[in-house]
Amino acid sequence: MKRKSQTEVIEAIRSVAKSIGGDGLSQSKFIKNSDITIRDILRYFPKWSDACREAGVKHDSSRDRVSGDDILADWGLVTRNLRTLPSVTEYAIRGRYGRNAFKRFGSWIDVPGSFREHFGDSGSWEDVLELVERHSQKQKPRQTVLNQQPNRQRKDQRWHEKLASRQIYGDPIDFRGLRYETVNEQGVVFLFGMVARELGYLVEAVQSGFPDCEAKRKISKGQWQPVKIEFEFESRNFVEHGHNPESCDVVVCWIDNWAERPPDIEVLVLSEAIKRLPREEA
Prior knowledge:
This protein is of the alpha/beta class.
């Protein structure tokens, strides 16, 4: 079944509300009288009332919010069937709810921890909790203390224990005004601003909402084209943050690790792009 757009969902709500009438449109009546699914609604709106409010329709608030237990339980079922923690894309294919339904738990990477908090003592999800624990162990950073197990430590791997409440820096880079490699999205934004013109971009606007940036991009001599840009430290964060690929043209990042990205979305990897640029401004 073809995925419904946000506009199609809103128009369907308006159409059903007009045909049925009454004091308030309930979610169950809407689903019964349209080809829109609950998953379509939750893909764009956290709850039913938000969808109706956007459509300008009075709503029945009895189903405003699906319970957190229901959402996490569905995530658990998908995890159980896959026998591994699902990516956003994998869950979107197999799960019942849209990405927005999970925003109450934080980002996508916070969902396993929320699942453990909700069902850790239930006695019904031991297999899924074991997968969550394995994933948690894999995510822990490898840190080696100097002079500890010296025979296993490579000569170029001189790691110390991380100190709390101290700034983290990337490797030395000394690229123009940037002394160290970026370690976060803010660094990506800063670096792109430094080199945008040389890479053929003119920034029109930068905002806090998605997409982060609107720009013009040079496509030939005397010709520029508008593009929508999203900044990410790692390209795969695009899906983990629940962004819609149809509303973005270019992902600008430092690390490209998005193996399943759609063919019509471009990734600009700054760590590679700046290698072609002079280290000092002319």
